[in-house]
Amino acid sequence: MDRPCRGMPRQGRAATDATEFPDVRLQYLDLDTGNVAFALIGDTGPRAAIGEGTVALAAALGGDTVSSTATFSDIKALKRSHVATVIFPTRDVPKLTDNHFSQADIDRLGMEALAAFGGKSRLFACAGG
């Protein structure tokens, strides 16, 4: 998966696609590395495992990449321990991009929302970082 995605708690069904939650945007700040990553809430995720979008998100926060041949140990090494999350409602990515969006679009709109929020320094202050 080339787009970080955050799974929703299981509610008995899977979302039809990433646009089912269009007005929810997430911005993550890794309090250890200072890296930010932007993602959409995409689906309910697998029942007993992390999904590939979650792996991409962890890799982005750690400043890592994941190869298609990554082992289970490689994936476990991506674990992030101190992450703050901000939800930006009304950032309807599919609508703002005529439903043709890439990670670059998500990142651009996320940076705009983060700037309007007060930037990374405000997020650090709110998270106690």
Provide an overview of this structure.
Helix 4 crosses helix 5. The chain is of the alpha+beta class. The relative contact order is 0.22. It is built from 5 helices and 4 strands. A hairpin with a 5-residue loop joins strand 2 and strand 3. Strands 1-3-2-4 form a 4-stranded mixed beta sheet. It has one domain.
Secondary structure layout:
Layout: E1 5-7, E2 24-30, E3 36-43, H1 52-62, H2 72-76, E4 83-89, H3 93-96, H4 103-117, H5 119-127
Parallel strand pairs: 1-3
Antiparallel strand pairs: 2-3, 2-4
Helix pairs in contact: 4-5
Keywords:
alpha+beta; single chain; 129 residues; 5 helices; 34% helix
Helix content: 25-40%
Q: Tell me the number of strands.
A: 4
SSE arrangement, N to C: EEEHHEHHH
Report strand %. Answer: 15-25%
Q: Helical region count?
A: 5
Could you give the distance between the termini?
30 Å
Secondary-structure class: alpha+beta
Briefly summarize what is shown:
The chain contains five helices and four strands, in the order βββααβααα.
